[in-house]
Amino acid sequence: MEILVVSDTHGRVSRLTEALERTKADTLLFLGDGLRDLSAVPDGVAVYAVRGNCDFMGFDTPDSMLELFGTCRVFMTHGHRYGVKYDLSAAICAAAARSADVLLYGHTHVPLERTLQAGYTVDGVTLQKPLHILCPGSLGDPRDGKPTFGRLVIAKGGVLTGLGTL
After folding, report:
1. CB atoms inside a 10 Å sphere around CB 99
2. Is residue 16 a contact partner of residue 149, using CB atoms and an 8 Å limit?
3. I need a labelling partner for 2 at 20 to 30 A (CA). Which of 44, 46, 71, 81 fits?
4. How far apart are CA 75 and CA 57, in angstroms?
5. CA 61 to the chain's CA centroid
6. According to CATH, what is the number of the domain 2-165?
7. Using CA of residue 101, residue 23, residue 9, residue 33, what is the dihedral sign?
8. Which candidate, 82, 77, 70, places its Cα nearest to that of 27?
9. For residues 84 and 82, what is the distance between their CA atoms, to the nearest angstrom?
């Protein structure tokens, strides 16, 4: 299963559409700041979304959520409530508390891909299993000028993460 992971579209609907066309993903994980842009997602694409700090009006969308894809537990958050612009510790601890295999966050507009091994300790919490961390950066307002997105591939053999650029 290949999943497109995006964040911070901030009204750049054409970039979201392009990322969907390029990856041909049938599942989209949206990490906030541009919930209105999801109206452009074509029928047939499953959408899971969390609210960002710029998603103000009329959205009954959670700040974070845990989703199960097969046996893979994915913790999604925009990240502003966990202070991800300064430190990932709180988000890592939140993912570990939910026995997540993957932590997805946005908010920073800077892509990041990293895996922490079982036994890694942060703020007194020791990971019991590896944790894949992915921030897709931003399609709408990237810090380095290049719109980026993430990919999550879940297969029987495990989890792969990746980053892409438009």
Report:
1. 13
2. no
3. 81
4. 24
5. 15
6. 3.60.21.10
7. negative
8. 70
9. 6
Strand partners, 113: 134
Amino acid at 100: A
Distances (CA, A) of 135 to 9, 39, 107, 109, 145: 13, 22, 9, 8, 16
- Residue appearing with tokens 């750049």: 12
Domain boundaries, the chain: 2-165
pLDDT-based confidence at residue 156 (cuts at 50, 70, 90): confident
pLDDT grade, residue 36 (50/70/90)? Answer: very high
pLDDT at 29 over 90: yes
Q: Where are the beta strands (DSSP E) in the chain?
A: 2-6, 27-30, 46-49, 64-69, 72-77, 102-104, 112-116, 121-122, 125-126, 131-135, 148-155, 158-165
**Residue that has been written with the tokens 């438009």 in this structure:** 166
Mean pLDDT of all residues belonging to the chain: 94
